Amino acid sequence: MLLQKKYQKLRQLLGECGKVLVAYSGGTDSAFLLAVAVQELGDNVLAVTAISPTSTKAEVAEAQQLAKELGVHHRIIHSKEMDLRDFVGNTAERCYICKYSRYFDLQEIAKQKKIPWVLDGSNMDDLDDYRPGNRAIKELGLRSPMQEVTLTKSEIRQLSRQMGLPTWNKPSSPCLASRIPYGQEITEEKLRRVEKAEEYLTKRGFSPLRVRHYPAEARIEISPEQFSKLIEKSKDITKGLRELGFPKVTLDLDGFYSGSLNKNLPDKGE
Question: Which residue intervals define the domain NAD/GMP synthase in the entry (predicted)?
């Protein structure tokens, strides 16, 4: 079976690395990569999670819990992208600036620990969207093992489920900065408002979802199948999000679309 061949190839690749640092967010991809690395290399794996105001408390807690269950050495560092003018200015290069800063710090840790490889959890699907962060991976010389063995997101979910990982069906959740349209300043106040708004909607059964933070509105993205549910609860939802500081609440009729803010970029090439 092709999928099992890819999986065995990944195991072999990781085993040959000898000692690795895994850039670990706690999402489906990095969790799977970390689990397989631990399986092959045991104590020769260090998981590092970079956190900042762009992270949610729930994501950090989930990452810590899984790392504990895997029995892996886990370190949390505080990244500094919010101190970078070009990041908070929120250009189309935002992701590149953040990834370069974070991965540079991971490489420094790897050098200190004499770890030869820093691994990233990118998969084949990540090559299809506008992801300037991929350039930072190449420039800094990180490895993306799951791209090397051509694993897709759906295949990673399937293998994760077979391994019993709780992240096998975890919705993709890019950093909170991705909820703010390009050209609008990223502030901690906006990030916390988005986090609270998405928590509010998640508790009411909406998933997957995004709350885009426009200057005068919260624009909700959910699947079309949930439109009627949201409309039924529109008064309560509008009230709840206004209390968080959004003057207006709207529904995006295009529905949920990961990376929707990228579609209007004039040039998505890297």
Answer: 9-81
